[in-house]
Amino acid sequence: MKAFAKTDRGPEFYLQAQRCAQSLWRQGFPAQALLQINRALGAKLFGDEPILDSWPLPYRAAVWVMRHRREEQFIGNPRRHYQHLATRMVEPRKAQRSWRAWACWYLACGIFPDYPADEKQLLEEGVIEPTREAILRGLIDFGIAGEVAVWEVAESMIDSLPTPGPGWEDPESRP
Predict the structure, then answer these.
(1) pLDDT tens-digit profile of 11-32?
(2) What pTM was computed for the model?
(3) Residue 4: inside a domain, yes or no?
(4) Residue 22 belongs to a domain
């Protein structure tokens, strides 16, 4: 990954991030694999790149890693991780990348329903966890063609989906 300059975040970077994620998963490092998946989701893609035919946006990969890691393998708290990633995003493509992080956060909430949010951040910074509908809107508005369908396939791989409760609101404008 070091071979890529900070400005070179196109299809080659995307593929290499996915390959690194797969390698880290196979080595038994699910948390590091998720970090590489995050990097792949941050790549500058327009939706018409041929690489997306064989390596779709890695929402399913994120679900796979979260669901299939062994108990003794460190994964941290993916819910909190994605909450922080979504709320602390910087340019370039801040909105797109934030909504992708919220999309992964939603998946993590379904996989790890007992993992806590960062309640302190929610309270002190006024962060409002988005609803599924708000996430879909964000992916439609800022994602690439076909992204929602790819995310919904990943969502279908989860046994229990998050349900709206306290703190779940549909903000007018995010992020």
Answers:
(1) 999 999 999 999 999 999 999 9
(2) 0.88
(3) no
(4) yes
Question: Cα separation of 21 and 132, whole Å?
Answer: 26
**What is the distance between the alpha carbons of residues 127 and 107, in angstroms, rounded to a whole number?**
18
Residue 16: name the closest of 1, 26, 27, 31 by CA: 1
Q: How far apart are CA 164 and CA 129, in angstroms?
A: 10
CB-count burial class (<10 Å; 0-12, 13-18, 19+) for 72: exposed
DSSP E strand stretches across the chain: 129-130, 168-169
- Residue 69 belongs to a domain: yes
Whether residue 173 is contained in a domain is answered as: no
Query: Which residue has 């996430």 as its token pair?
Result: 135
Domain tally, the chain: 1
Are 108 and 82 within 8 A, CB to CB? Answer: yes
Q: For 111-164, what is each residue's pLDDT tens digit?
A: 999 999 999 999 999 999 999 999 999 999 999 999 999 999 999 999 765 554
* DSSP-derived secondary structure letter, 114: T
Domain that holds residue 76: 11-162
Backbone angles phi, psi at 129, to 5 degrees: -70, 125
- How far apart, in whole angstroms, are the C-alpha atoms of residue 31 and residue 1? 17
